[in-house]
């Protein structure tokens, strides 16, 4: 899944009380992150394989990729607090120190029986990964602390980063978003589903 600056992409959050959902991870170009490497299977020089090439244009772009599905509790949710997480990587090729911020919005998880009331979702923090890229000098993005708990339909900034190098190019800034939700005892059995909409904003300043 590829999302450009000032555009939004939906992060599907599916919860099942009866079975475990699968997690699909995509790279910036949209292909599977678990694609098999190119390797010859035969014993002669006639064995061939294909190498895939992918790039984005133009340089100077700000984009990000994120898990299509969040990692959910193993064997379904329990009554009480449940945790989820998803991985995101921001690709910054602007060559400036203007930075970026990520916003999130959600109306919560929908009950399979009545569709309401929705179960609120909360983002509780992030785990920064190791930033990479020529002369980026980043220490990784930081949790903003201003995200509403629970998330609402109005987008809130929850993570941001300001590059330490004003001429950095090809920066890759990965992080894992952490969240939680609470299912009350006696809630109907079935699959609870909802979305978190992520928006990458082309500045680190402001709300």
Automatic annotation (TrEMBL):
Lineage top rank: taxon: Bacteria
Record's signal peptide: 1-35
Record key words, sorted: Signal
Protein name: WxL domain-containing protein
Species, as recorded: Dictyobacter arantiisoli
The organism's taxonomic lineage, starting at the top: Bacteria, Bacillati, Chloroflexota, Ktedonobacteria, Ktedonobacterales
């Amino acid at each position: 899944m590829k999302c450009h600056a000032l555009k939004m992409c939906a992060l599907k959050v599916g919860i099942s009380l009866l079975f475990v959902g699968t997690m699909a991870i995509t790279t910036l170009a949209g292909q599977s992150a678990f694609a098999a490497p190119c390797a010859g299977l035969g014993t002669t020089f006639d064995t061939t394989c294909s190498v895939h090439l992918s790039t984005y244009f133009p340089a100077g772009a700000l984009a990000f990729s994120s898990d299509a599905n969040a990692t959910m509790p193993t064997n379904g949710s329990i009554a009480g607090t449940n945790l989820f997480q998803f991985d995101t990587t921001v690709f910054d090729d602007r060559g400036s120190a203007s930075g970026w911020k990520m916003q999130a919005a959600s109306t919560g998880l929908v009950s399979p029986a009545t569709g309401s009331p929705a179960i609120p979702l909360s983002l509780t923090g992030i785990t920064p990964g190791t930033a990479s890229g020529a002369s980026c000098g980043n220490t990784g993005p930081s949790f903003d602390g201003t995200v509403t708990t629970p998330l609402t339909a109005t987008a809130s900034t929850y993570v941001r980063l300001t590059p330490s190098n004003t001429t950095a190019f090809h920066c890759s800034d990965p992080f894992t978003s952490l969240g939680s939700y609470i299912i009350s005892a006696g809630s109907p059995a079935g699959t609870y589903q909802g979305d978190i909409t992520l928006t990458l904003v082309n500045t680190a300043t402001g709300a």
